[in-house]
Design brief:
107 residues, alpha+beta, Multidrug-efflux Transporter Regulator, Chain: A, Domain 2, two-stranded antiparallel sheet, 3 helices
Amino acid sequence: MRLALTAGTADMPLALKTLQEVSVELGIPEAELKALVQMQKIRGMMKRGKLVFAPDEIAKIKRQRKSLPESAKETVAPPVVPKPSIPPKPPPVRTPPRRFPQRPTDL
């Protein structure tokens, strides 16, 4: 860990926040935060098997949400129109192999 020295005093590094803490603080579902990490839109780290975020990443998310307020709102999905069902094709009719008549053999 790196400590910054400011005017002779050591500043402690800012604490990391867990996925649940960030979700509550920002009002974003945990699944959406995980998706942002997987798409590499934000950085997340695994510590002791839990996903944690640095304060600068949390500020980055806040800035993005502030500039795009409609993204924080719940969106209503358009109704799904079912496609007309097409009956499956019947399997092709297999004809038996052609058998040619045998020629009589002369002895």
